[in-house]
Amino acid sequence: MDFQLVADTHTHALASGHAYSTLLENLHAAKAIGLSFLCYTEHGPAMEDAPRRFYFHNIKNLPDMVEGVGLLKGAEANICDYEGTLDLPEKDLAALDWVIASYHTQVIDPSTKEDATRGWLAVAKNPLVDVLGHCGDSHYDFDQEMVVKACKEHGKIIEINSHSFEVRQGSKENCRSIALLCKEYRVPVVVSSDAHFVTSIGKVGNSLALLEEIGFPPELILNGEYNRFLQVVREKTGRFQ
Ligand SMILES: [Zn+2]
Ligand SMILES: [Zn+2]
Which GO terms describe its molecular function (predicted)? Predict the structure, then answer.
């Protein structure tokens, strides 16, 4: 497949309370493996031990480039209820470069397929969200076709999270069917590591193998080619011109 990873779009650092490297270590790793961008997407404040709101408010003061790597200052917001409510205020979400929204069992008890679908549909409609995070998690099975079509309608990106295949039950099968729908409806995806330690930065092999297996169109993998991802970054941040 014609693919060159240019950005890891989902990474954590010490501030999450359950990750073990600094942001600078992650940036150095990104540089060492030739990435052009790193999305720093710390867990939102609804997760225990996660940083508080001011952390995300203040993050805009970090530099845009660190030693040649573009830093996208983001968050992995928690979906807190099945109406799609997120755990950061709108004005803070709007100021971030890259917003992933995810369900986590630490924050929201799994419920019915109808509930999980309703939550995702609300997230898909939220203009402050960029990416639906690790949606292959079988704790939150949902109507995949309905949600993928909503992503198409509202310009959302679906994440194929490589780490999920190892830790989230049922992820591979779900990611496969979700990716097949993305292929069918031409919905863009990103592949990500969800790194919680520096050695995982850029590890997206599981996601790539799955996408190759199903003949996924490489042009729909947004972080698989420099100019393609740069265009996304420019649209979302207005910077990096
Ligand atoms: Zn997550
Ligand atoms: Zn994460």
Answer: phosphoric ester hydrolase activity; zinc ion binding
Instruction: List pLDDT tens digits, range 9-58.
Output: 999 999 999 999 999 999 999 999 999 999 999 999 999 999 999 999 99
CA-to-CA dists, residue 51 to 55, 75, 197, angstroms: 6, 10, 17
Q: How far is the CA of 43 from the centre of ligand 2 (A)?
A: 7
How much distance in Å is there from the Cα of 104 to the middle of ligand 1? 6
What's the 159 CA to ligand 2 centre distance in angstroms? 11
Residue 47 CA: which ligand is closest? Answer: 1
- Between the CA of 241 and the centroid of ligand 1 the distance, in Å, is 30
Cα within 13 Å of Cα(225), Cβ side: 13
CA of 197 to the centre of ligand 2 (A): 11
Q: How does pLDDT run across 46-94, given as a tens digit for each residue?
A: 999 999 999 999 999 999 999 999 999 999 999 999 999 999 999 999 9
Domains of the chain, first to last: 7-237 (3.20.20.140)
Which residues, 6 or more positions from 106, have their beta carbon under 8 angstroms from its beta carbon?
47, 48
Of the listed ligands, the closest to the CA of 194 is 2
Structure-token pair, residue 42: 């710390």
